[in-house]
Amino acid sequence: MRDTKKILRHAIFNALDGQITYNSVAVPVVDEKIRNSAPSDLFIVLSTQSESPVERNSSSFNTQSSIDIDIVQKTGTEVSKDGIDDVYEDMLEIIFPSISTLGLTVPSGFQFQEGFRESASTFLVQDTPTQSVLVSRVRLTFIIVQQ
Length: 147
Prior knowledge:
This protein has a single domain, classed as Alpha-Beta Plaits (2-Layer Sandwich). It is 18% helix and 46% strand. The protein is built from two helices and seven strands, in the order H-E-E-E-E-E-H-E-E. The chain has helices at residues 5-16, 82-95; strands at residues 21-22, 25-26, 29-30, 42-54, 61-75, 110-127, 132-146. The model has no long low-confidence stretch (mean pLDDT 88).
């Protein structure tokens, strides 16, 4: 049995990296944190992950693996959720291109059997006279089969 968190994180990173733009600017995808001096005020963070075994059959290891994806936007004094909402929609279209298809590539020996959006929320992290930080967090969950 192998840990599926890294497999899931890399599949999502590879699917999203360089594929989303907002106002003609590429939206960076980062694994956990971005420097304060980053050139973009809008970015995607691959955040908290969890996994648990799923008993499906005796011929494979099955895991339910989840990842929280944060879409973060730093803004000036004007606060709008439009930017993070647009990036969120683009992200979902890449990962779930149709009802029966996943837009993720997995390594040999593994199969993403099922994927779904478990939850989503938007919240204000910081609001000062000079900066607001908005976050849209989505939890995606997949059943990963190791053959």
